[in-house]
Write a structure and sequence with these properties.
CATH topology: Rossmann fold
Number of helices: 5
Helix content: 40-55%
Largest sheet: 4 strands, parallel
Strand content: 5-15%
Strand order of the largest sheet: 3-2-1-4
CATH class: Alpha Beta
Order of helices and strands: HEHEHEHEH
Length: about 170
């Protein structure tokens, strides 16, 4: 191993140790039902997003969380709510909220964020899960397809993260 490799390994180890320290010392959020924790999941009506929503719901069956799901596929929202509520003896449909949105549109993301915060209060946990996969080689795509994919898979994530981090009260 040469000198540069040793330095790189050392820096990576230092970074891992710092992340571990921050993770262990970070304040923990207590989920209580008197003031539910708002969890926002993009792309949450199917696939991994739906599984995450179901997991959060089953981990907190007494209403400690508000699941706020954003997706463009409004036709699947009722199925998602039904599937999640079927896991409970007493369904709690009022803790699952659906908002239809096209995350490729930056202006609509800002308006939607304001509406969600107005309806539910601050977001405590943001899960950026919405994505678009084309499954083709880059040279087979049009520039418009690449732009739309970047808007959904990258720009919307950054925009939502910035809105999340700018919140006053968490």
């Amino acid at each position: 191993m040469n000198y540069i490799q040793i330095v790189c390994v050392f820096l990576v180890l230092m970074l891992v140790m710092k992340i571990y320290y921050l993770w262990k010392t970070a304040p923990k959020k207590n989920f209580i039902s008197s003031k539910p924790t708002n969890i926002l999941i993009t792309g949450g009506v199917q696939g991994i997003g739906k599984l995450l929503a179901a997991k959060f719901a089953t981990m907190h069956p007494n209403g400690e969380v508000n699941l706020i799901v954003i997706d463009i596929a409004e036709n699947l929202a009722a199925d998602m709510k039904r599937d999640i509520n079927s896991k409970f003896k007493q369904p709690n449909m009022n803790r699952i909220h659906f908002y239809k949105a096209n995350l490729a549109d930056a202006a609509s993301i800002n308006l939607l964020w304001q509406q969600i915060v107005r309806d539910h209060g601050p977001i405590h946990l943001l899960v950026n899960n919405a994505a678009r996969a084309l499954g083709r080689k880059v040279d087979e795509l049009t520039l418009e397809q690449v732009k739309l994919t970047m808007d959904i898979n990258f720009h919307s994530y950054v925009q939502l993260m910035m809105l999340f981090l700018k919140q006053k009260e968490i």
